[in-house]
Amino acid sequence: MQTPPLKITFLGTGTSSGVPMIACGCEVCTSNNKKDNRLRSSILVESETTSIVIDTTPDFRYQMLRANVKKLDAVLFTHPHKDHIAGLDDVRAFNYCQQKPMELYANSLTEEAIKREFAYAFSDKKYPGIPNLNLNTIDGSPFIIGDIPVTPILVWHLKMPVLGFRFGKFTYITDANKIDVEEKEKITGSEVLVLNALRKESHISHFTLDEAVAMVQELGVPVAYFTHISHQLGLHEVVNTGLPKGISLSFDNQQINL
Ligand SMILES: [Zn+2]
Ligand SMILES: [Zn+2]
Ligand SMILES: [Zn+2]
User: Cα angle at 88 between 177 and 81, to 5 degrees?
Assistant: First the structure.
C-alpha cells in the first residue's frame, strides 16, 4: 500500500520535565524565544483522511487544543514512561465527539502499563464518562491505520524496548540510545528522520547530541530533526546553528510536509 502525502506536526519536543522546567532559572528556561518552550515529546501524523498521534504526554490536552485537532483516529505508543502515556485520559473528548472507542496501538509492555495505570478504563463496572479505549497489540509486523501504512521499529532505551515508527519516507524515534542492525535497515531509505537528542553530556538511556548526529550520519538519512530536548542542551538558536547540514533541532508547532 502506498503512503499518502503526510503532514507532520511537532506537538512537543521536550524531555520528561518539559522546557522550561518547574522552578529552574537557567538561561534556556528563562529564554524569550518561543523555540525554547518545549512541551513533552509527541507528533501528529496526518493524511487527507487519517490522523494519528504518537504518545499521549502529560500535555496531551493542551497539545490537541493548540494544534486544533478536531478528529483523531488512533494513538501509537512508543513506551510506557509517564511522559509518553500520562495524558491518555483526555482522549475521552474524542470519544464524545466521534462516538467510538479510541484505537490504541502499543507493544505488550506498554499495554500492561496502560491497563495498570488507567485501570478504571478497563474495569467491568465503568463509571460514566471514562475513556473508551481499544487496545491493539503491536507484535513487530507492519500494519495500516486508515490510509497510512505503519512500520514499527524496535529500539533500546537502556534495556527497555521502545517502538519507533516509519511512515513511508518519514521515521520517528524517541527515547533511544541503541538501535540493532536489523532495525537500522528498516530506517534506511527514509528521507526524514526524527531522533531523540537529550543534551551534550552522556546519559544512561538517551542519545546525546553527538551520538544523535553520528546515528543520523551512519543511517545516511539526508534530513533529520532532533527531539526530546532537555533545557541542559542549551539555547535553541545557539545549538541549532552549530549542527551539520541537514540536521536541526525541532521546535514545538513545527510542521513538515512529505
Ligand atoms: Zn521520554
Ligand atoms: Zn532550566
Ligand atoms: Zn522514556
Answer: 25
Higher pLDDT residue, 168 or 127?
A: 168
Other beta carbons within 10 Å of 172: 27
Distance 198 CA to ligand 2 centre (A): 13
Instruction: Dump pLDDT digits (tens) for 117-150.
Output: 999 999 988 888 899 999 999 999 999 999 999 9
Contacts of 240 (CB under 8 A, 6+ apart): 248, 249
Three-state DSSP class for residue 11: strand
pLDDT per position as a tens digit, 34-54 = 999 999 999 999 999 999 999
Single-letter code of the amino acid located at 99? Q
CA 102 – ligand 1 centroid, Å: 22
Ligand nearest 233 Cα, by number?
2
Nearest-ligand number for the alpha carbon of 54 = 1
CA of residue 15 to ligand 3 center, whole Å: 9
Mean pLDDT of all residues in 220-235: 98
Give the C-alpha separation, 45 to 68, whole Å.
13
Tell me which ligand sits closest to the C-alpha of residue 81.
Answer: 3
Strand order, beta sheet including 7-12: 133-137, 102-106, 74-76, 51-54, 42-46, 7-12, 255-257
Dihedral (CA of 206, 184, 211, 87) sign: negative
